[in-house]
Amino acid sequence: VQLVESGGGLVQPGGSLRLSCAASGFTFSRYNMAWYRQTPGKERELVARITSGGGTTNYANSVKGRFTISRDNAKNTVYLQMDTLKPEDAAVYYCNTVGTNYWGKGTLVTVSS
Q: What pLDDT is attached to residue 79?
């Protein structure tokens, strides 16, 4: 099983980034997927979650209206579109297969002017 995140980087406040998580080694289309984030000294927090078919999504209150989770089951990939980024969104973002211990290594997002 492998989850590989990409798309992180440095962005100015108010900017956008799109994260991707490429999955392999399991039947991706059968699993709900999630994005988490973590900053030093804090617990990993759930950012967004999407059901296996993509029909239902949930978001943390802190990102609702700014972030959009989506997936392409044909490409075994889940995405996180992040708009109107704030400095407090800076973190390492991780991809997770819900209900399993499958995690990626993370991608760093820095929001700074």
A: 98
Place of tokens 């969104």: 89
* Distant-in-sequence, close-in-space partners of 21: CB < 8 Å, separation ≥ 6: 3, 4, 5, 6, 33, 35, 77, 78, 79, 80, 95, 104
Note the pLDDT tens digit of each residue in 30-55: 999 999 999 999 999 999 999 999 99
- Tens digits of per-residue pLDDT, 59-95? 999 999 999 999 999 999 999 999 999 999 999 999 9
Is-contact 32 52, C-beta < 8 A?
Answer: yes
Gyration radius from the chain CA atoms: 13
Buried b (16+ CB within 10 A) or exposed e, 67-96: bbbebeeeebbbbbebeebeeebbbbbbbb
